[in-house]
Amino acid sequence: MRIDAHQHFWHYTDDEYGWITDAMAAIRRDFLPRDLVPLLDEASIDATIAVHARQSLHETNWLLDLAEEHAWIAGVVGWVPLAEAGVNAEAEKALALLVENHKLKGVRHALQGEPDEYFERDDFNAGVGLLRKYSLSYDLLILEHQLPMALRFVDRHPEQPIVLDHAAKPLIAAQVFEPWRARIHELARRPHVSCKLSGLVAEADYEHWTVDDLLPYAETVLEAFGPKRILFGSDWPVCTVGVSYSHWAAVVHDFIAQLSVEEQDAILGGNAARFYGISQIQ
To answer: How confident is the model at residue 48 (pLDDT cuts 50, 70, 90)?
Structure first.
C-alpha cells in the first residue's frame, strides 16, 4: 500500500491562513478531497494521512468527518489542547472522546510558532504524556533552529512514537547545512523518532530549485534515519508553490531507487502504515 503520510485540506480565509505569504499566493484558495483524488491516481497513491493546518478542535473534527466520507483518508493527525489536557480533566475527556474515532492516529502542535520555553512547559509535556494512553503518535513540527529544544523534548518522552515533519525545515534556499545536519544525526539516534521526507521544496527557492539543491538534505535524512524510519509525504497543497504532486512523487521515487525494493516499499507506505497503525483502507 502506497501512503502519502502528510497532506492538508482547507477552506481558505485570509484570517485563518495568515501564514500563507504573498510568495505562496497560489495556494490562497480551497483545497478539498475532490482536488486531491486525481493526483493520487496519477501518482499511484492508495491512501493519505490528513494533517491539520489550523490549531482548532473544529478542524480536527472536520478532518475526521472527511476521513469517514473518504476511505482513502486512512488517518488524521489533528490538534487537541495538549497543554490543557495535561492539567484539566475536562480537556482530557475531550481527547478521550476524539479517539473513539478510529481514524484519529496522531496529534500535532505547531511548535514552530512557539517560543523556546514552550518546549519545557510542564502542562504541555503532561499533555504529550497522555498520548500513549490513547495509542496516538505525535508529529513534531519545528524549524531547524529549534532542533536543540526538540532534542530535549523527545528525551522527555522516550516511549512516545514521534515523527519529525519536513526534516525540521532546513535552510535549503540559502544552502545552509550546519548545524542542521549534525543535529538531524543526533535526533536520529533516538529510536522512537522517525522523519517525513516531505516539505523540502517549500524550503528551497520556489521558482529556481533543482533536484541537486535538495539532494544533500534528502541524503542526510536517509543517512541519519535509514529506510525503516522515513515516511514519504507530499505536503500537498503547500508543495504546489514550487512543484506538482506528481513531480514531487517522481523526485522521491528517483531518490530512493538506489535502495532495495523492500526498503522502497517501506518509505513509500510500509513505515507510515506501521507508525500510524494502518492495516487496511477502511
So the answer is: very high
CB 109 within 8 A of CB 79: yes
Residue 95 and residue 4: Cα distance in Å, rounded? 25
Model pTM score: 0.96
Amino acid identity at 235:
D
For residue range 15-25, what is the model confidence (pLDDT) as tens digits? 888 889 988 99
**By the 8 A CB rule, do 20 and 237 touch?**
no
Averaged over 140-168, what is the pLDDT? 98
Q: Are 23 and 47 in contact (CB under 8 A)?
A: no
Q: What is the DSSP letter of 211?
A: H
pLDDT attached to residue 282: 64
SS3 56: coil
For residues 62 and 51, give the distance between their C-alpha atoms in angstroms, rounded to a whole number: 11
The Cα–Cα gap between 74 and 68 comes to 9
Report d(CA 221, CA 196) in Å as an integer: 9
